[in-house]
Amino acid sequence: MKLPLLLAGALLSTQAFAQVDLINKIKDNGSDAPIGYEWETIVDIEATPVKNQGASGTCWSYATTSFVESEMIRMGKTPVDLSEMYTVRKVYQDKGEKYIRLHGYLNFAQGGALPDVLYVIKKYGAVPQEVYNGLNYGSEINRHGEMEGALKGILDAVKGNKNGKLSTSWRKAFDATLDAYLGEEPAQFGYNGKTYTPRSFADEIIGINPDDYVQLTSWTNHPFYEACQIQVPDNWTWGISYNLPIDEMMEAINTSLEAGYPVAWACDVSDKGFSIKNGIAVMPNQSWSDMSTEEAQAIYAGPHEEALVDQETRQEQYDNYLTQDDHGMVLQGMVKDQEGNVFYIVKNSWGDIPNDFRPGYLYASEAYVRLKTISVMMHEDSLQKSTKKKLNL
After folding, report:
1. Containing H/E element for 227?
2. Which residue in 13, 21, 15, 30 sits closest to 353, CA to CA?
3. Which one of 20, 60, 77, 91 has the minimum C-beta count within 10 Å?
4. Are residues 322 and 344 in contact, defined by beta-carbon separation less than 8 angstroms?
């Protein structure tokens, strides 16, 4: 199966972008065997077109931006193609400031967390893609390795404090680098015949309240039913999530989707069961290393017995770095196969990659989501009253 030109170009890149490395690792997962799945739709939430994050580690921005666009549709608004790179710029600025204040003891990289988009909307606002595409450096797709290196170089020079006192110019140098690569930040702009600022555009056109959204997780190293900070490197804001037992987190996902609410999904996609080639993510009950080539190929091709994922198994994978925070996508609905097994409709941000079901999307099994979820984010109103009561929401 051929991959789209832009993604294929990223795969051939020799630059050590984390996202490209991830795609290179998993691009061959899958099977050329005839596909035997038959799908019945349970719920399919309307979404905007699939985008391509290119050679950049900005899945978090693409995922939650898509999530916000779907929320606009759910709320009866006309969706807008929103700028992911405006959010990326504002996150770089605030992350750089925090990096200096912490003397470099912060992960300054391309990655981020799902709530970062809501953080930017609340603090700064948002702009349309047509106003700020972030492609100011001679490329048709995002390529952030050089920019990340330049920004990090400035911060490390400042952190070194060679003058014995930080200058008044380092923020100007940092922002000028962002201007050079992403373009100057728009103070105001025209849209549909009216002038907006990022603040007024977010308030009047997008119209969501960032405080209405909640992030859930499920780990035994934190007390259940309490707020916690997910301990992953890209949680640079030290944002909180609410910790639920795994069965209750899955129930919250299902309840939200069944009620027509999209769910932003932070997860691990480095597992062999994640196949962009076949558009499927599965978690078989047998170890991949114990399978023959024929058995492994059959796993991707049709219904099979999935692993039973309990709280202990999930925690063990997290504690041993087998589940890491390496990608963000959006759960847009649910389907079931001919044997009644539930899969989640997942919108990706790697372009319209062709597969056996739906270009740019994949179907993730319940077992995969149970095991490989880092966190999920949804509108608070989509949660059951009993869940909200347990979390004091």
Report:
1. strand 227-229
2. 30
3. 77
4. no
Torsion of CA 246, 247, 253, 255, to 10 degrees: -160
Q: Shortest CA distance to 33 belongs to which of 374, 304, 266?
A: 304
| Bridge partner residues of 281 (DSSP) | 274, 364
Domains in the chain, ordered, with CATH? 5-390 (3.90.70.10)
For 70, the token pair is: 């779907």
Mean pLDDT by 10 residues, the chain (393 residues): 40 45 76 85 98 96 99 97 99 98 97 98 99 97 96 97 93 98 98 98 98 99 97 96 99 98 98 93 92 88 94 98 96 98 98 91 98 98 98 96
- Give the separation between CA 48 and CA 129, rounded to whole angstroms: 13
What token pair was written down for 229?
A: 């900070």
Residue (of 63, 8, 9, 15) closest to 326 by Cα position: 63
pTM of the model: 0.94
321-359 pLDDT tens trace: 999 999 999 999 999 999 999 999 999 999 999 988 899
Sign of CA dihedral 114, 119, 121, 122: positive
Contact 146, 178 (CB under 8 A): no
**Backbone φ and ψ of 291, nearest 5°:** -95, 150
